[in-house]
């Protein structure tokens, strides 16, 4: 990325792949997290490699589960643990708690409302819409 800060050399291959494919996996979360921690969502920074990219759902993720079923609940808990990098179950009182913007890792703790940042909330809503549209198109 000319005229902008650069990523560490070890992150370049991952960043280029994500930029080219538009998607990332759980294995990429640390590269994304460390880039976000340093640059936030700022334009013309290495964050541009990841802008508009989405998480590829793992093979174990079943899109056909009934959202009101026990299986769906357990699957969402597993997805939360994979993203957050913890064995703790999701707890909205902890994971959605308001936090100062500078102390929130929005990649590992994607409870975006905790930032109380209108830009982060609106960007998350746009990402959810894109995800749902891709999911709908994949199902058709």
Strand and helix layout:
Layout: H1 12-21, E1 23-24, H2 29-39, E2 54-55, H3 70-84, H4 92-95, H5 118-139
Parallel strand pairs: 1-2
Please characterize this protein's 3D structure.
- This protein is an all-alpha fold.
- The protein folds into 3 domains: 1-56, no CATH class; 59-90, no CATH class; 96-140, no CATH class.
- It contains 5 helices and 2 strands.
- The protein has helices at 12-21, 29-39, 70-84, 92-95, 118-139; strands spanning 23-24, 54-55.
- A two-stranded parallel ribbon has the order 1-2.
- Strand 1, helix 2 (29-39) and strand 2 (54-55) form a beta-alpha-beta unit.
- It is globular and about 45 Å long.
Give me the Rg, rounded: 16 Å
Total number of helical segments? 5
Number of domains: 3
Oligomeric nature of the chains? single chain
- The shape is globular
Class based on secondary structure composition and strand pairing = mainly alpha
Tell me the helix content: 40-55%
Low-confidence stretches at least 5 residues in length (pLDDT < 50)?
A: none
Q: Topology as H/E string?
A: HEHEHHH
The count of β-strands is 2
Average of per-residue pLDDT values: 79
User: Which percent band covers the strand fraction?
Assistant: under 5%
């Amino acid at each position: 990325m000319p005229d902008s800060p650069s990523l560490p050399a070890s992150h370049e291959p991952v960043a280029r792949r994500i930029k080219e494919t538009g998607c990332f996996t759980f294995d990429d979360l640390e590269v994304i997290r460390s880039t976000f921690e340093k640059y936030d969502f700022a334009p013309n920074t290495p964050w541009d490699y990841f802008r508009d990219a989405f998480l590829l759902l793992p093979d174990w993720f079943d899109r056909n589960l009934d959202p009101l079923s026990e299986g769906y609940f357990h699957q969402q808990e597993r997805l939360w643990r994979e993203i957050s990098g913890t064995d703790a179950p999701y707890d909205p009182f902890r994971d959605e708690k308001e936090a100062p913007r500078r102390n929130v890792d929005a990649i590992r703790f994607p409870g975006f409302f905790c930032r109380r940042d209108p830009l982060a909330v609106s960007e998350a809503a746009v990402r959810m819409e894109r995800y749902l549209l891709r999911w709908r198109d994949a199902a058709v």
